[in-house]
Specification:
Blueprint: E1 7-16, E2 19-29, E3 34-38, H1 45-52, E4 60-65, E5 68-69, H2 75-80, E6 83-86, H3 98-104, H4 113-126, H5 128-132, H6 143-155, E7 161-165, H7 173-188, E8 192-196, H8 200-206, E9 209-214, E10 217-223, H9 224-229, H10 231-238
Parallel strand pairs: 3-8, 3-9, 6-7, 7-8
Antiparallel strand pairs: 1-2, 1-4, 4-5, 9-10
């Protein structure tokens, strides 16, 4: 791997059929950082995550990781580069056990059974509740436990960049606190994170840098603390009216 940005976008466009959703996206994610992507519903955040993971095609623009061009790469190539997508809604295999779901995260990796067991143990160390539930069907987990399982499955893919779409959606504040703590821990282990998050306060407090998306365009970016203190951001996304 080279020493370039783990994610570099310039003028990226994408959409569905004849509908263009993303218009000239410029973004950089540096190694070792948590980057947040915020914006209202329908801004194009999930579409960007799908384009970055190869689920929809990049129509134009630059998409690079460590200076390697990924604009025309398929999902398997992108995954092999260590860019891993935890989708909105978890998308677990509900009838399968927690442990089987976690093992699915390593399906594309050539690792031994012993290595697989070590990596499962590492995930269970981060999310002890999953060890307790490892033989339980994923569909029977609580929402927070399902999110843990989805993130754990992503970790089994050996990510360099973990992209998480809507971390806190539908979860209790206590569960969100646990997940945020887990992300801080993962980031301290040199896993870069790109986070789409509806709770702007959580996102900006957690991240190093954030990008604000509106109508398929990046309209603002900066350090998380700077944006959290920005009167325009506070009024638009936190409902804090300025005097």
């Amino acid at each position: 791997m080279s020493d370039g940005p783990i994610l570099e976008l310039q003028g990226l466009t994408a959409g569905y059929g004849e509908i263009q959703v993303l218009w000239g996206i410029d973004m950089v994610v540096q190694p070792g950082e948590i980057t947040a992507l915020i914006g209202s519903n329908g801004a194009g955040k999930t579409t960007l995550m799908r384009a970055l993971s190869g689920l929809i095609a990049v129509r134009a623009g630059i998409y690079r990781s460590d200076h390697q061009d990924l604009a025309a790469a398929d999902a398997a190539v992108i995954l092999a580069r260590g860019i891993v997508h935890v989708p909105e809604g978890r998308r677990l295999f509900g009838a399968m056990s927690v442990e089987d779901n976690l093992q699915m995260g390593a399906y594309a990796r050539a690792i031994s059974g012993r290595e697989l067991d070590r990596e499962l143990d590492a995930v269970y160390a981060i999310f002890p509740k999953l060890r307790e539930r490892r033989h339980q069907a994923a569909a029977t987990l609580s929402g927070g436990e399902q999110q843990m399982c989805a993130i754990g499955r992503g970790l089994m893919s050996a990510p360099r960049l973990l992209m998480i779409d809507e971390l806190s959606l539908g979860l209790s504040p206590i569960m969100v606190e646990q997940l945020v703590a887990a992300l801080r821990d993962l980031n301290a282990r040199d896993i870069s994170i790109l986070l789409v998050e509806q709770d702007v306060t959580i996102a900006l407090d957690l991240c190093h840098r954030a990008y604000v998306m509106d109508m398929g365009r990046i309209v603002r970016d900066g350090r998380g603390a700077e944006l959290l203190a920005d009167p325009i951001i506070r009024e638009a996304y936190l409902g804090v009216l300025q005097p």
